[in-house]
């Protein structure tokens, strides 16, 4: 990834707004810039738009939406902001938190009204750290559907997506970006001039060197993000003197089916399930959140554990396409008794039975265990039981380039790079410095809300 002088460069084509990356952030930015009146070109290194969005559950947290009101749910941007700040121990920039919390609901309603995305709010379970049911998703509850529908909206808007084109060079002059250089699979190169550039190429989760430097606890973990997330935005930003923040921030996940490699919804835990290690014993407070649970899981023998739940919880989890895929793949184990479940998972029966008995007693008494998990109001488990072997994984990084209220990239001395914008994982998010600061949905929050903000600002520059 290089920065070169634009002086004397002969560009092959010119576009008002260029967007690097065709995940949720880039596609939303493209739609917003187009609506602002600018011509837009989206550049994507893959054969089709996918990105980390396609690997996610596709859930976007948003407060005060019409879907919440229709469901009788009380929520507000202020309450959402407070939840974000509490989870990340007040580390994020409060102004950015407020900006995203206030922008994401209108962004979802805009995508629904203008581009036909059929969002609905999840009402039958709540992710840790959220004080209201505010997760919104599409019918399949999958990131694949989200990115596919966004890509369709972009195409129907007449916005070209240039696939199999890897950007490796930015051209700059007088403190602004003048264009970019890309390479095709056959080695041919093109130079594209632009008035505004949006970096929506995510973080550095696929870059083993950067992960080892900034997130050493997960340097050997399964990487469940997109391999193209090599830190391009971060490396370009460094060369441009851009400010960065919270580079150790990340989202892990302690619930990826092993060895199947399928994401298992955390509802399997929050609705009354628990995790045990090879000894059949619990080892942590699972209710803290799935992000910080990744490192806990990886510390267990063999780097994998078993999530125990039941048929009732499986019914809730089945709304997610990933869970249905896991069932089809045979990752979900079924058993009428704990003895049968232990045998099928090669766990010590006595220990597993004792663990279940302890958990159910805590539920009956409304007690808190030695790890700090409260079981008050948590439903009991009952036969038939379900279980899945899972491992911990790194999903995506949360630190990145510092941006202003318009998602414009800032330099280390606080000045702006006038026509350079960042959204999604390319920008510093609102999760603070560690896994524990990640509130469920923070990744797509930054993708959708910052994507629209960046696109609106870049689009305004593109029509000047």
Structure description:
This protein folds into 2 domains: 314 residues, FAD/NAD(P)-binding domain (3-Layer(bba) Sandwich), CATH 3.50.50; 145 residues, Succinate dehydrogenase/fumarate reductase flavoprotein, catalytic domain (Flavocytochrome C3, Chain A, domain 1, Alpha-Beta Complex), CATH 3.90.700. The chain is 33% helix and 23% strand. The chain contains 14 helices and 21 strands. Strands 1, 2, 3, 7, 8, 9, 10, 20 and 21 form a 9-stranded mixed beta sheet that branches. Strands 11, 13, 14, 15, 16, 17 and 18 form a 7-stranded mixed beta sheet that branches. The radius of gyration is 22 Å and the shape is elongated. The two termini are 29 Å apart.
Topology:
Layout lengths: L1 E4 L7 E8 L3 H12 L4 E4 L16 E2 L4 H5 L6 H11 L6 H22 L4 E2 L13 E3 L5 H14 L4 E2 L3 E8 L2 E8 L5 E11 L8 H7 L7 E2 L8 H9 L3 E2 L4 E8 L4 E2 L3 H4 L3 E3 L13 H9 L5 E7 H7 L3 H8 L3 E4 L2 H8 L3 H17 L19 E13 L2 E2 L6 E3 L5 E7 L19 H21 L2
Parallel strand pairs: 1-8, 2-3, 2-10, 3-7, 10-21, 11-18
Antiparallel strand pairs: 4-6, 5-6, 8-9, 9-10, 12-19, 13-14, 13-18, 15-16, 16-18, 17-18, 20-21
């Amino acid at each position: 990834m290089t920065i070169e002088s634009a002086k004397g460069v002969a560009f092959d084509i010119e576009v008002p707004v260029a967007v690097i990356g065709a995940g949720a952030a880039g596609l939303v930015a493209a739609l917003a810039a187009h609506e602002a009146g600018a011509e837009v070109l989206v550049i994507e290194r893959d054969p089709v738009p996918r990105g980390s969005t396609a690997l996610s559950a596709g859930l976007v947290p948003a407060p005060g939406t019409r879907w919440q009101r229709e469901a009788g749910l009380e929520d507000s941007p202020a309450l959402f902001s407070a939840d974000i700040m509490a989870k990340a121990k007040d580390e994020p920039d409060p102004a950015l938190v407020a900006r995203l919390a206030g922008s994401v609901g209108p962004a979802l309603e805009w995508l629904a009204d203008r581009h036909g995305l059929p969002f609905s709010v999840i009402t039958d379970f709540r992710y840790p750290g959220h004080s209201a049911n505010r997760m919104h998703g599409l019918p399949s509850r999958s990131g694949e559907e989200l990115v596919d529908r966004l890509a369709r909206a972009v195409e129907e808007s007449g916005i070209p997506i240039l696939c199999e084109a890897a950007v490796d060079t930015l051209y700059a002059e007088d403190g602004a970006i003048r264009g970019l250089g890309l390479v095709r699979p056959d080695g041919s190169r093109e130079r594209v001039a632009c008035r505004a550039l949006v970096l929506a190429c995510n973080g550095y989760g696929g870059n083993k060197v950067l992960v080892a430097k900034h997130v050493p606890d997960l340097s050997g973990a399964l990487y469940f993000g997109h391999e193209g997330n090599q830190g391009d935005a971060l490396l370009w930003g460094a060369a441009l003197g851009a400010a960065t923040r919270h580079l150790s921030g990340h989202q892990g996940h302690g619930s990826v089916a092993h060895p199947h490699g399928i994401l298992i919804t955390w509802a399997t835990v929050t609705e009354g399930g628990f995790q045990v290690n090879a000894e059949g014993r619990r080892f942590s407070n699972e209710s803290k959140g799935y992000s910080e649970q990744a490192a806990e899981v990886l510390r267990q023998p063999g780097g994998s554990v078993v999530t125990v739940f039941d048929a009732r919880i499986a019914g809730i989890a089945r709304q997610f396409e990933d869970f249905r895929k896991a069932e089809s793949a045979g990752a979900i184990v079924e058993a009428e008794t704990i003895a049968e479940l232990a045998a099928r998972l090669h766990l010590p029966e006595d220990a597993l039975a004792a663990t279940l008995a302890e958990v159910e007693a805590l539920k009956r008494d409304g007690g808190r265990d030695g790890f700090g998990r409260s079981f008050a109001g948590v439903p009991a488990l009952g036969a038939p039981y379900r279980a899945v072997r899972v491992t911990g994984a790194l999903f995506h990084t949360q630190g990145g380039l510092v941006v202003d209220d318009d998602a414009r990239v800032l330099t280390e001395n606080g000045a702006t790079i006038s026509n350079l914008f960042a959204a999604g994982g390319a920008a510093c998010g609102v999760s603070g410095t560690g896994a524990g600061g990640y509130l469920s949905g923070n990744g797509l929050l930054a993708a959708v809300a910052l994507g629209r903000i960046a696109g609106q600002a870049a689009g305004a520059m593109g029509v000047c």
